[in-house]
Amino acid sequence: MAGSNLPIVLRILDNENRLVERADQKSISLLSVLGVFMVFFIAYYRVIPMNALTMTLIALYFICAAMSIISLIMAIRPRIRREKGATDAGPVRDPAFFSGISAFPDAAAYKDALQKLLEDETNVAENYTRQIYSVARINQAKYKFVQRGVVFVICSLAIELAVIVYLFAYHLSQGRGFMPSIS
């Protein structure tokens, strides 16, 4: 790899790392939004009339909410499978990747390995290529779960909205107003 190509490779790696951060931010934001709406839903649970329609909607709501929570947590911490043919020969001491840096026993061993890596441009190119590929696989898993989580959050909120519309219509038809008194 020519020396002028290294900044391009580093930019690709930086972009992949930013995508990891964005997926985590999206997941945390969606979990927060879902939590806020769940609090409102549970707080007004007492005014929901128990009939077949509302029980079905509530069951669907909790299933969608649980699935969205699971999906978003999996987006924050996805499980990545090893490549076929990869061996587990112990921790790989990669001096330029976060999982490898912590495998060194001390700073001196890390410094020696980093200097050895930097001596050969071919090793540097291979190292960064592996990193880009690994981070891209992590991003692929994260965004798959983020997309699922978004679908389930939207379904949860749509069901919650349907229950609210039903409550409004039900309580107005009963002549009790929107919010009956607590008794």
Instruction: Give the quaternary arrangement of the chains.
Output: single chain
Order of helices and strands: HHHHH
Rg from Cα: 25 Å
Silhouette: rod-shaped
Tell me the helix content: over 70%
What is the first-to-last residue Cα distance? 76 Å
Task: Return residue spans where pLDDT drops below 50 for at least 5 consecutive residues.
Answer: 87-91
| Mean pLDDT, all residues | 82
Q: What is the total domain count?
A: 1
Number of helices: 5
Q: Which class best fits the helix and strand makeup?
A: mainly alpha
Annotation, overall tally of beta strands: 0
Strand content: under 5%
Q: State the major sheet.
A: none
Question: Can you characterise this structure?
Answer:
This protein has helices at residues 6-43, 52-76, 98-101, 107-119, 121-173. The chain has one domain. The chain is rod-shaped and about 80 Å long. Residues 87-91 have low confidence and may be disordered. It is mainly α and 183 residues long.
